[in-house]
Amino acid sequence: MKTIQIGKDKMPLLGLGTWKSEPGIVEKAVETAIKIGYRHIDCAAIYQNEKEVGKGINKCIDEGIVRREELWVTSKLWNDSHKPEHVQGALEKTLHDLGLDYLDLYLMHWPIAFKHGTTFPNSNSGFIPIDEIPLEVTWNKMYEMKEKGLTRHIGVSNFSVSKLKHLIQNGPKPEMDQVEMHVYLQQPELVSFCKENDIAMTAYSPLGSMDRPEDRKKADEPIPLKNEVVLKIAEELNATPAQVLLAWQIERGLAVIPKSTNEGRLKENFESQNLSLSESHLDQLRKVDKNKRIIDGEIFVREGNSYTLTSIWG
Ligand code: A2P
Fold first, then answer.
1. Which of 26, 259, 273 has most ligand 1 atoms within 8 Å of CB, for mutation?
2. Ligand 1 centroid vs 269 CA: distance in angstroms?
3. CB within 8 Å of 25: residues ≥ 6 apart
4. Residue 262 Cα, ligand 1 centroid: separation in angstroms?
5. Residues with Cβ within 8 Å of residue 91, at least 6 apart in sequence
6. 0.90 surpassed by pTM
7. pLDDT per residue of the chain (314 residues) written in tens, 0 to 9
8. CA-nearest residue, atom 9 of ligand 1
9. Given the CA of residue 241, which atom of ligand 1 is nearest to it?
């Protein structure tokens, strides 16, 4: 299994994504994934399925299929708990739901703050302007969670180069930035910045997250799994398009967390670790980039609130 060094620990590059996995089927999917060999599970409080994910994990631990220390479990602080007094409670709730004593990695999910208890704001009053709880205030509290041993590592998600720089200037360096990353959104500047600064990266939505709610899709959206270059390389290597998309991220030294609840596709995705891409393949895939976000943050932008696409991604 390919890994990346994070502090003193090794994080498996291939993980299981659990966003959009229905609570009723994710327990079985996690159990199946661990039996296949997955050792990295990516979770978040907002996915509203951590109890079921935790049942899958703990079943495997109880049955002796895996030991806790062989697993890498990531979770994320939701936007409604950025105030320092809410961070530890949110992390403890996640640990309770997952049935674990500690996380391997805890991420600040978005550079966006909501009023406490708000899953998703119905109106502008549910948002808190970011200058009211500066990111570094939440971040320094996240560091305290690491010092207390509730999580072994800390990082961020959906953070741009300028926001990473801001954190580095005002607190400890993040160990991870988890961002949307696929052939249509390759983010070369962010990848270079993270490499230069020894910040690991995880690619979410590597297959294009086509199981998103319909109202979050755009009609003209390009689909990574249907890209012609991807299809051609897959045929050449006798692999599937998904395997090419995943192997490409691993080849670039990025962790990747494809979501599946289907046993066949879980196996297929796991086997992408055995696929090698040549320099020519990497070059061909590099040229596919369209700098196109699918999780574009528009759901956080409302007339009259302080969040804009520029303020989120800038
Ligand atoms: P399913 O859960 O039925 O396997 P992403 O990881 O980018 O969010 O994409 C997840 C979507 O891709 C889900 O709809 C998932 O469906 C599907 N998917 C996962 N693995 C594969 C695969 N190997 N081939 C095709 N689709 C896949």
1. 259
2. 9
3. 261
4. 8
5. 75, 77, 103, 106, 145, 150, 151
6. yes
7. 999 999 999 999 999 999 999 999 999 999 999 999 999 999 999 999 999 999 999 999 999 999 999 999 999 999 999 999 999 999 999 999 999 999 999 999 999 999 999 999 989 999 999 999 999 999 999 999 999 999 999 999 999 999 999 999 999 999 999 999 999 999 999 999 999 999 999 999 999 999 998 888 888 889 999 999 999 999 999 999 999 999 999 999 999 999 999 999 999 999 999 999 999 999 999 999 999 999 999 999 998 888 999 999 99
8. 209
9. 24
Cα–Cα distance, 61 to 12 (Å, whole number) = 18
Token look-up 């086997």 returns 271
Instruction: Provide the token pair at 168.
Output: 């580095």
DSSP secondary structure string, 113-147?
A: EE-TT-SS-SSGGGEE-TTTS-HHHHHHHHHHHHH
Looking at ligand 1, which atom is closest to the CA of residue 182? 7
The residues annotated as belonging to the active site are: 47
Is residue 2 within 8 Å of residue 37, measured between CB atoms? no
Residue matched to tokens 């805890």: 106
As beta bridge partners, residue 310 has none
Tell how far the Cα of 209 is from the centroid of ligand 1, in angstroms.
7
Give, for ligand 1, the residue of 210, 216, 230, 263 to mutate: max count of ligand atoms closer than 8 Å to Cβ.
210
Atom of ligand 1 nearest to the CA of 268: 23
d(CA 3, CA 242): 20
Distance of CA 13 to the CA centre of its chain: 12
The values of phi and psi at residue 155, to 5°, are -165, -165
With beta carbons less than 8 A apart as the criterion, state whether 89 and 82 touch.
no
